[in-house]
Write a structure and sequence with these properties.
- It is a single chain.
- The chain has four helices and no strands.
- It is mainly alpha-helical and about 160 residues long.
Amino acid sequence: MHPRVSRILKALIVVLLALLLTSQIVVIPEVAHLTAQRNPDVAQLEIPGIIGAVVFLALVEVTLICVWFLLSLVRDDRIFRVEAFRYVDIILVALVSAGALILAAYLVILASRAVSLSLTLLALLGIVVSAALALLVVVLRGLLRKALELEHDLSEVV
């Protein structure tokens, strides 16, 4: 990977992390508070909603930080090392956790009878996207493992 591309990606990760952190601190509590005021019948979901949204964005942040470390491994030409699997595994756990969190949030909303068709579709979309991304990471993890084996075999031949 070209060093400039790596630097640009890292800069974008920094921007994304700053935006996500701002959302966690300012936007989510404000939106939850306004929603609770406008819809008193679901006001009891304000705090759980804030917690769920903040945790969800924290999972996104963890994923971005792992991508940062993977980019550093690529830059240092160390991506085909066992340490890369640690970051890939953390990304995988974060994706599965995000899908589970979306499902749990949907079930809480469903139990409170505040569910709508659009919310159902959004929850389904979130669950399917997180499952698809997790499966993609599993495939990429397998490719990384195979590349590591091939590099090891080549080093023995040379």
